[in-house]
Amino acid sequence: MKRQYIIYTAALAMLLHKAQAQETVLPAPAQQKPVYLTNATIHVGNGQVISNGTIGFDKGKIIAVGSTVSAASNATVYDLKGQHVYPGVIAPESNLGLVEFESVRATKDEREVGEINPSVRSLIAYNTDSKVINTLRSNGILLASVTPTGGIISGTSSVVQLDAWNWEDAAYKTDNALHLFLPRLVSVGSASNDPLKNSLAQVESVRSFFREAKAYLAEPKHTATNLKYEAMRRLFSKEQKLFIHAELEKEMLLAIDFAKEFNVDVVIVGGADSWRITDLLKGNNIAVILTQPHSLPLMQDDDVDQPYKTAAQLQKAGVLFCLSNEGFWQQRNLGFEAGTAATYGLTKEEALSAVTLNAAKILGIDQQTGTLETGKDANIAVSTGDMLDMKSSVITQAFIQGREVNLDNKQKQLYEKYKKKYGLK
Questions:
Q1: Does domain 14-87+370-409 bear CATH number 2.30.40.10?
Q2: Domain boundaries, the chain
Q3: Which of 66, 301, 328, 356 matches a 20 to 30 Å C-alpha distance to 159?
Q4: 14-87+370-409 and 89-368: identical CATH topology
Q5: Are 323 and 337 a contacting pair, CB within 8 Å?
Q6: Who's near 171: CB < 8 A, 6+ residues apart?
Q7: Which residues does residue 383 pair with via DSSP β-bridges, in sequence order?
Q8: Which residues form a coiled coil (predicted)?
Q9: Quick check: helix, strand or coil at residue 252?
Q10: Residue 341: count of CB within 10 angstroms of its CB
Q11: Of 9-13, 209-213, 251-255, 303-307, the least confident
Q12: How far apart, in whole angstroms, are the C-alpha atoms of residue 266 and residue 276?
């Protein structure tokens, strides 16, 4: 009994020590009084830039923006002395909050068992206590679409704001997209095990499921409720979009067929080959989420810098697109990848739109956010320099729905800890 007591006491002491060592980054309280950011270069997000401008917001909403705006008498005023003000960056496709350590199975909750799971909701698995979230905010990423993976139809994604106590608080737009992961259409294998044949069979099984779900939903009443078919209702009523994950040209052609056959709003996620079929994408009003723009070309005979040029080619063709990244912690570099796209054909403001306004349009939240315009949510990042440039960007302040959020994170704390340990300035 005495030995058990000693073990219990030691374990309790260890837990208390760990609790004291954790960062105390708490969600910010609701905005209490008007805030004005003055003497700033304001990048609205729609191509407009306001020099020496002022932006004001109250109760979480932008109330004024321009070069002749005067601060209210009861407001908190920040003189930014020429710093840059941007809309918060939006990560349009991520497993943020669903995975903490890729090598630790217990911290991974991004997939469900089975191949067809339209009723799965990623939002309820979103972990607001993830230590990765704070590292994204430090680089100006303030919103993210949390995406499930696994199987062919993996479930629905939701947009979250990155300053919340729980998933209910975090929810910004719920269940806005259903995700379909097309199998890779490549023919590599033997006659007895042809991957292309197997992939086409999987695609046909998905088509059959869509047809059955549509027929089920057309019935006035049912003898039994089918939860998977019921989960398709919002897709067919166009309250929800179908995000089809596809890279190759032939896969994207299948995605266009899905849009036509089932009359649903399709967005292509991945889109490495999208530059080859810009006319078809534009003609069928299909948007593209370009993932992993910092990568090697998909095909051996592609230009080595093709992934960097694709964004500008889509822009020139008039295809709605935005930029994304794979995984969760990599999202912190999203703004810098937009900067690379600006080097390869986009203007700086077009590149900014690719991670703000365009992403908001594709996710269906452009009436709430994506630009710094009157009436929209005050999702704002302040940087000493160009937010799309890794060298000059230092985020000094960030606001989510008017709340000034804490920009501390575990990595900053470790930096300060070891700087002190080794006597570094």
A1: yes
A2: 14-87+370-409, 89-368
A3: 66
A4: no
A5: yes
A6: 123, 158, 159, 160
A7: 84, 395
A8: none
A9: helix
A10: 28
A11: 9-13
A12: 18
Mean pLDDT of 233-261: 96
Indicate the SS3 state at residue 275.
helix
3-state secondary structure of 292: coil
Write down the residue that tokens 């009003």 correspond to. 285
CATH of the structural domain 89-368, one choice from 3.20.20.140, 3.30.110.40, 3.40.50.1860, 3.50.30.10? 3.20.20.140
Residue 413 burial class via C-beta count within 10 angstroms: exposed 0-12, middle 13-18, buried 19 and up: middle
Residue 126, both tokens: 């979103």
Beta strand pairing call for 395-400 and 380-383? antiparallel
pLDDT for 17 equals 43
CA distances from 160 to 2, 382, 403 (A): 49, 20, 15
Instruction: Give me the half-sphere count of Cα atoms (radius 13 Å) on the Cβ side of residue 255.
Output: 36
How far is it, in rounded angstroms, from Cα 69 to Cα 34? 13
pTM above 0.85, yes or no: yes
Q: For 307-351, write each residue's pLDDT tens digit.
A: 999 999 999 999 999 999 888 888 999 999 999 999 999 999 999
